[in-house]
Every structure is written in C-alpha cells, then in structure tokens.
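Final report, Chapter 2: Outcomes

The project's central promise was a pipeline that accepts a single protein chain and returns its three-dimensional structure in a standardized token representation, suitable for archiving and comparison. That pipeline is now operational. To close this chapter, we reproduce one record exactly as it appears in the project archive, with the input sequence first and the structure output second.
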Amino acid sequence: MKRLTLVLLLLGTPVMAMADDAAIVAALDTKYQAAVKANDAAEMDHILADDFVLVTGRGKSFNKADLLATARNKDVVYEHQEDTSQTVRVWGDTAVVTALLWIKGTQGGQPIERKLWFSDTYVRTKDGWKYAFGQASLPLP
C-alpha cells in the first residue's frame, strides 16, 4: 500500500505542475491582452520573447519590435481587446493558448471591429514563461 501511494504521489506531481503551468500561462496571456489594449509597450516587452514572431491570417508577419512600435505610437486605440473561450495546453516547457479575440477600436482614425481565433505559443525560459509565437486567423464573418 505504501508503494502504491508513493507511485501515485510521484505520478501526480507532474500533472499538478502542468496544471500550475497552465494557470500561469493563462494569466500571463490575459495580462498580455490587457497590455495590448492599454498600449503598454513596457509590459508587452517583458512578456514577449526577443525572437517573437506573429503571423496573421493574411500571411503578414510581425516581430517584437513591430508590436512595441505599434503600442508606443498608439496606432490602434482599443475599446475592446478581450478574449473568450481560452484554453491552455502544456507540453513540458511549451504551452499553447487558443482563444477567440474580440478587437474593437480605431486605427488611423477609422473604426475597426473584428473577431478572430488565435494561438499563442509560450516557452519556459530561465526568466520564466515568454510569448514566443502567435498565429491569428482571418477575421470571422
């Protein structure tokens, strides 16, 4: 019986750690979306990996410097930048967040509103979890 308890405890530790990692990454991605909404380049800089890449549904790609410049210039003024249906999957030192994003605001003085699915890939580094890669769908009809 002691042996079975020990085995269950040892097997449960990685499962519990994955659940903790999933909660940490979910909160970090929510924090990132809030930083984007606020055009908080400093917070975005802290969360994004230095070699970050975002690929849109239209095939355009953006790096960390591009996103930080957009935030600093306040190219988009957000009324909404929230996600729903968030799921997080963790595989060791990699986690993927998938969610439905609602964007509403103005860009270049023109109103914008769209909903799209995204997948954000986070990697565990010596400095904690970092947002390394994003993939966004085309806007939903």
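Archive annotation: The chain has one domain: 2-136.
This record, like all others produced under the grant, will remain available to the consortium after the project formally closes.
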